[in-house]
Design a protein that fits this description.
Layout lengths: L1 H19 L2 H12 L5 H31 L3 H16 L1 H7 L9 H8 L4 H34 L6 H46 L2
């Protein structure tokens, strides 16, 4: 039943997950590939295309509507300004490696587009970065299954527990990210309010 479900929807779900920022779903797919429910080569290729397509979209959105996108949330504005500083110093390095920096997956392509980074160069380097990310993370998850088998023996007896643990871990990371994002938004709003209040007081002084 699980195998049939994954054959019907697994790769599509992996594509969507990596399109929107899916380290956890790629790890899960890599482990399932080790268990024989998915093909590791197709997992890596699907993750590559999902990640590549998503980041190309955010890049072009950044070129057209970068400031408007970042202004939608105070936290995005702060992260975007920080990302622009990084890009100005080492543009090619950040295009290749931003996927490996937790929390910058969505904001960084927008900032790269906003910075005026050349489209053809981004098309090439973003593809290299997506390929390295998909291969490295997919292979790590696949070998994680092999390590578990060496430790536990017959992994099949524990595979539902492992899958459950990976899902719980992914949910906890998502909740942690949401909590930190909400806290950063409140902090940014408070900081902006303080700055406006200070500016208004200065302007009222004779």
């Amino acid at each position: 039943m699980l195998q049939q479900f994954l054959q019907d929807f697994g790769y599509f779900a992996l594509f969507l997950g990596t399109f929107f920022e899916g380290e956890t779903i790629l790890v899960l797919a890599g482990f399932l590939a080790f268990r024989g429910y998915m093909d590791i080569n197709l997992v890596v290729v699907t993750a590559f295309f999902g990640s590549y397509a998503g980041d190309q979209l955010w890049y072009f959105m950044g070129r057209r509507h970068g400031r408007a996108l970042l202004a939608r949330k105070p936290r995005w504005q702060l992260l975007g300004d920080r990302a622009l500083e990084h890009i100005r110093r080492h543009p090619d390095i950040w295009v290749l490696g931003f996927r490996f920096v937790y929390g910058l997956r969505t904001v960084m392509p927008v900032a790269i587009g906003l910075s005026g980074y050349p489209p053809r160069r981004y098309l090439l380097l973003n593809g290299i970065g997506a390929a390295v990310w998909a291969l490295a993370l997919g292979a790590a998850a696949y070998h994680f299954g092999a390590i578990l088998e060496g430790l536990l023996g017959n992994v099949k007896k524990y595979e539902l527990w492992v899958l459950g643990a990976l899902l719980v871990l992914g949910a906890l990371l998502w909740l942690r990210r949401r909590f930190r994002a909400a806290r950063a938004d409140r902090k940014a709003v408070a900081q902006a309010t303080d700055e406006q209040s200070s500016s208004s007081q200065d302007s009222d002084r004779p």
